[in-house]
Amino acid sequence: MTLVIDLLLNPTIQAILKILVIVLGFVMLTGTVLTLMERKWSSAVQDRIGPNRANLGRWRGRGTLHLAADAVKSIFKEDTIPQDADRLIFAIAPFFSLFAAMVVWAIIPVAAPIGSFRFQITDVNIGFLLVFAVTSLGVYGAVLAGWSSNNKYAILGATRSTAQMLSYEIFLGLSLVGVFMVNGSVTVSTIVANQGQYWFGDVIPKWGVFTQPLAFLMFFTAMLAEMKRLPFDAPEGESEIIAGYFLEYSGMRWSAFMLAEYIAIVGSAALTVTLFFGGYQVPWLHGDGFELFGYLLPLPLFIVTALQILAFVVKVVFFCWLVILIRWTVPRFRFDQIMELGWKKMLPLALANMLITAVWLLAWDHWHL
Amino acid sequence: MESQRHLKPLDFGSEPMTIELGPQHPAMHGITRFRCQLDGEVIEKMEADIGYLHRGFEKEAENTTYINVIPYTDRLNYVSPLINNVGYVLAVEKLFQVEVPRRAQYARVIMSEISRITDHLTCNGASAMEVGAMTVFLWFIKAREHLWELVEEVTGARLTTNWTRIGGNANDLPYGFLTMLDERLVKVEEALNEGEALILRNKIFIDRLKDIGILSRERAIEHGFTGPMLRATGVPYDLRRADPYLVYDELDFEIPVGTVGDCFDRFLVRQEEIRQSIRIIRHAVEKLPPGDFHCRDRRVWMPDKYEVFNSIEGLIDHFKIVMEGPKPPPGEAYHAVEGGNGELGFYVVSDGSGHPVKCRVRPPCFNYVAAVPEMTVGHYVADIVPIFGSINMIGGELER
Predict the structure, then answer these.
(1) Does any domain span residue B38?
(2) Domain count, chain B
(3) Which candidate from B26, B129, B208 shows the least CB-CB separation from A334?
């Protein structure tokens, strides 16, 4: 018994357990379910019924069995590798994408810390800089896959995804500089804790979207580009270059790309929530209960934590839904239009946002507004 | 010398990439092949290669009777089969010099316009889908479905309509059809408005289509463009007005024209033509006269069963039509109708026997595909999709 408690208190074991719970229990699950929900939600947009045919005898479960059907199919499908492909790179490329999509979760807190225990895999001091570093690795998945396939369409897809990365990475980073300035920190836990403060006497929560609205719009746009979702899915461009960089993939490796895409959606939604929508913060919920206009509704700690986790999940699912809704609403950019958007419109906007934030903060400090 | 060598650019041994789009490719509706030479993503050179869907319609027509050609015409432009039916029988009727009752003519106009709407809905929906607006495509397809149910009501089939006959139609408009038509047209208008609201004010959509695939008015005429493609360049040429057939000269409608002739103009022209077609249908329904749905000319239309069983002339006529088919006088006839894509012409030559000596189709999109290289060179690979989508190439019609 003491051995078990000792093990549970060991930080390494704790980290591994957190990884298992967060990544396997939430991220993989949500990512997988999103593949089905995308089809269901899109069918709702388009006046269709959506997938409902997979069945166990009479039980169809409103299409949920398609998850199992898809998994079984991709596992048993032949994993073909083209004759002239670079076999090693071709084989490992999908896992770059998958890895980059998952690492984001290392720093996302899902609830407020209790004592020294954090509901977060690790709270590194470089915070979001780690996210930038790792998510930009995701593009290697696309580039290596496209290059190693030895297929012209795949190479076009790979070049497009490089061009796209060059255009969104810059304003992705710059858009967040304002947020870091406001918070005076790049550490995730600080940024989230700061969003628990209030404006105008405990009424409006000081969420990032209210302090940095422009940054939110730019960050969300960049995240759509990062996920390679419509309107930024030029690298896949299904109508002209068919599937782009993962054209030659089949079976489980293809599924790895698809899964990476959906996990990236969940990850980006989590980042957006963490930066701009208070992360796990529930409005007017403090450590000891709800408090508004001086009235207090006391709640035990475990309920507060459960509410926070629930709020986080709800916010993340909301943004996943938003991303999918956007996909089925807007057409696709051409890749030179993406570059134009990134360099000519978003970059000056991000710089202006930085300048305005800096001036505002200085004025605030100087005149004690 | 030394400095010059220093300034020499690095030689990576790069060369333009040649890429084959098609014959199996999501953007190639049906099967066509484009061989493109790319510099980066910019198209430097392009060759169109057609013929993958050739089924020998014209040769097939020579080996069968005049009536038996009608089912083959369904498969020409397979998104507006009724216009093909009408076009072919009009040519043959010209050969026979038969007069079709006015009710049949009005019914043909109504069905042709329904087909034109289905054609334009398919084309515009597919154009939107190919630049990524999948939702609009499915909304338009839903609207098309309403119309295809109407077509099914009249002809018994959605695509293989085979509805017209030499000298009339296979049947009259069924009972209750006109009320159903009214309801369906309202639904189509709703779908049009919905779809337009989603994309026509969308910056991304407009940017993808505007100034893409421009062909000037002069070049369009030189290429022999007709239909929406020509009207998008600003030429108000419509066979329904320029050379009125059936009863189009009695019906009110306007000819929408574009200004510059880019993909966006083509999209708008087709959208407006759908509205004008709805107007034509409503007007035609209003004026629909009573009467027969076929002529009484014994050369082309079988006598009543009563006459077949009771008179020798009736029996002989029946026998001749069944065994040998209607025999037109020797001669030739060309009749063109305004198809979904443009001038759809049928040229039929007769030597007095029961089957055509020659049956040639003038497909409107042949000229368009010939002009695709001219429209695409200098654009990006991604622009092939809206350009090719806007010409609405139909393999069955192009390659026959």
Answers:
(1) no
(2) 1
(3) B208
Flag whether B19 is in a domain. no
Which is nearest to A238 in space by CA: B18, B17, B134, B124? B134
**How far, in Å, are A149, A236, B17 from residue A146 at the CA level?**
5, 11, 15
Task: Write out chain B residues lying below 8 Å of A44, CB-based.
Answer: none
Find, among B290, B316, B128, B313, the residue nearest to B209 by Cα: B128
The predicted pLDDT at position A140 comes to 85
Angle, CA B226 vertex, CA B184 and CA B216 arms, to 5°: 120
Please indicate if any CB of chain A lies within 8 Å of the CB of B35.
Answer: no
- pLDDT mean across residues, chain B: 86
Model confidence at A152, pLDDT cuts 50, 70, 90, reads confident
- According to the model, what pLDDT value does residue A368 have? 66
Quote the CA–CA distance of B309 and B147 in Å, as a whole number: 40
**Closest residue in chain A to residue B136, using alpha carbons only:** A46
What pLDDT score was predicted for residue A50? Answer: 83
pTM score of the predicted model: 0.86
Cβ–Cβ under 8 Å, residues B212 and B316: no
Say whether B331 sits in a helix, a strand or coil: strand
Number of domains in chain A: 1
Q: Does B387 touch chain A (CB under 8 A)?
A: no
A39 lies in some domain = no
- What pLDDT shows up at residue B10? 64
Percentage of chain A lying above the pLDDT 70 cut: 99
- Does residue A242 belong to any structural domain of this protein? yes
Residue pair B164/B172 in contact (Cβ under 8 Å)? The answer is: no
- Tell if the CB–CB gap between A240 and B384 is shorter than 8 Å: yes
Q: CA B222 from chain center: how many Å?
A: 21
Interface of A with B (CB under 8 A): 42, 45-48, 152-153, 156, 159-160, 230-231, 233-234, 237-242, 328-337
Identify all chain B residues contacting A331, using CB atoms and an 8 Å cutoff: 128, 131-133, 199, 202, 204-205, 208
A149-158, B111-120, B200-209, B298-307 — which one is most confidently predicted on average?
A: B111-120
Q: What span, in angstroms and rounded, lies between the C-alpha atoms of B194 and B17?
A: 41
Residue A358 domain-assigned (yes or no): yes
As a whole number of angstroms, the distance between CA B370 and CA B373 comes to 7
Residue of chain A nearest B141, judged by CA positions: A46
Measured between beta carbons, which residues in chain B are less than 8 angstroms from residue A329?
Answer: 135, 198
Q: Does the residue A292 lie in any domain?
A: yes
pLDDT per residue as tens digits for the range A122-148? 777 887 888 888 878 878 888 888 888
Strand bridging mode B343-350 / B331-338: antiparallel
Q: Cα(A215)–Cα(A144) distance, rounded to whole angstroms?
A: 31
Distance of alpha carbon B287 from alpha carbon B308, whole angstroms: 35
- Residues of A whose CB is below 8 A from B27: 239-240
In A131-239 the beta strands, taken as DSSP E runs, fall at 198-199, 204-205
What's the ipTM? 0.82
* CATH code for the domain in which residue B162 is found: 1.10.645.10
- Residue B1 has a pLDDT of 46
Min CA distance, A234 vs chain B (Å)? Answer: 9
Measured between CA atoms, the residue of chain A closest to residue B130 is: A239
Count CB atoms within 10 A of the CB of residue A197: 11
Mean pLDDT of the A219-244 span: 80
Checking if the pLDDT of A114 tops 80, the result is no
Please state, as a whole number, how many other Cβ atoms lie within 10 Å of the Cβ of residue A359.
10
